[in-house]
Amino acid sequence: MKTRIIGEVVKKGIGRAVIITQRKITHPIYGKQYKVTKKMHIQDPENLLKVGDIAEAEETRPLSKTIHWKLTKIR
């Protein structure tokens, strides 16, 4: 089973997009919660995405130096 991520599109190029994912983590000692944000580059060959869309991506083989995800669904 391949890994899937859901995130918001923050940057758009021709055939690719950058999405961010956020998750909350609790500090192991102090117990405070904080957000961790990660950027992922995804492949969008039909240029369907726009900035602000919520997208679902699936892990794939390396398609270029930075792109390791492909678009599966727009939410």
Folded structure, characterized:
The radius of gyration is 14 Å and the shape is elongated. The chain has one domain (4-74): OB fold (Dihydrolipoamide Acetyltransferase, E2P) (Beta Barrel). It starts with a strand and ends with a strand. It is an all-beta fold. It is built from no helices and 5 strands.
Briefly note the structural class of the backbone. Answer: mainly beta
Tally the beta strands: 5
Proportion of helical residues: under 10%
| CATH level 4 superfamily | Nucleic acid-binding proteins
Task: Detail the topology: elements first, then pairings.
Elements: E1 4-13, E2 16-26, E3 33-43, E4 54-59, E5 69-74
Parallel strand pairs: 3-5
Antiparallel strand pairs: 1-2, 1-4, 2-3, 4-5
